[in-house]
User: Which sequence fits this backbone?
């Protein structure tokens, strides 16, 4: 079987954006916004990245006519690290949505960003048009799901280097410049204490089964966090979800295979 040749892709020129800060309960979060009349797509970053890490998606979305928006969560690059009683990632995102005057949004979340997607769609379903969750184990609290995740990642896994955890062997072997660029974004992402997402709502199978928005689920075929079998388990509880496995990619398919990932994302958005 003939396969498409894998070729490393350099980071493209970025589209012009406006940068700013939004106040969330006395804390400031940094955001960027490509502006324009297109439907807003908010990009929600992974735990090893920040709002600045969507360098392959920002120009692609803007070129396709969407209003691309990204921001850094509390404790991440250029955002404050202050926390307070009662804060949640859904509440912070809603402050941004209100600040920008957005009626409805498409949400794209990678890894921990997928936690934010779910927390917001549970809290503000009428403000969401669609959700795309990429390589995220979503924080689902169910016994069968916890058992699978325990089998996937033994206790020593957390001590492994982040690039080994998140980038596929194919990418690490074939794109040393891309790995170096990924490390630059990782090192910029968290300058102090890493703040874990605080959720308003704990995800369960029942809650996932109640989502009626268009859903895209994607992962890399070499993802050590969310392998294809775990993605299928998630999809079995999300009726009608569009499911994709990106070849030669790990936990960061949007970075490792932006050619394929952007086609998948833009195709999904274009069918809404």
Assistant:
């Amino acid at each position: 079987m003939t396969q498409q040749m894998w070729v490393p892709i350099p980071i493209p020129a970025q589209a012009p954006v406006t940068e700013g800060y939004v106040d969330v309960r006395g804390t400031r979060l940094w955001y960027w916004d490509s502006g324009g009349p297109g439907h807003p797509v908010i990009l929600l970053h992974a735990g090893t990245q920040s709002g600045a890490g969507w360098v392959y998606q920002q120009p692609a979305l803007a070129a396709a006519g969407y209003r691309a928006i990204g921001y850094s969560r509390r404790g991440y690059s250029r955002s404050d690290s202050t926390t307070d009683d009662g804060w949640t990632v859904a509440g912070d995102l809603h402050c941004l949505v209100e600040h920008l005057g957005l009626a409805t949004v498409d949400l794209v979340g990678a890894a921990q960003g997928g936690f934010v997607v779910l927390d917001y769609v549970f809290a503000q379903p009428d403000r969401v048009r669609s959700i795309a969750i990429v390589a995220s184990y979503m924080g689902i609290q169910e016994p069968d799901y916890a058992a699978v995740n325990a089998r996937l990642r033994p206790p020593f896994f957390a001590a492994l280097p982040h690039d080994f955890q998140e980038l596929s062997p194919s990418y690490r072997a074939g794109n040393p410049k891309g790995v170096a660029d990924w490390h630059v974004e990782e090192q910029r992402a968290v300058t102090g204490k890493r703040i874990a997402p605080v959720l308003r709502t704990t995800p369960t199978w029942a809650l996932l089964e109640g989502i009626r928005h268009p859903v895209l689920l994607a992962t890399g075929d070499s993802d050590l966090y969310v392998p294809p079998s775990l993605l299928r388990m998630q999809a079995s509880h999300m009726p009608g979800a569009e499911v994709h496995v990106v070849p030669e990619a790990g936990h960061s398919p949007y970075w490792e295979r932006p050619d394929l990932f952007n086609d998948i994302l833009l195709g999904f958005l274009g069918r809404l």
Summary: The domain at 18-270 is CATH 3.40.50.1820 (Rossmann fold). The chain has a mean pLDDT of 96. The longest strand covers residues 18-24.
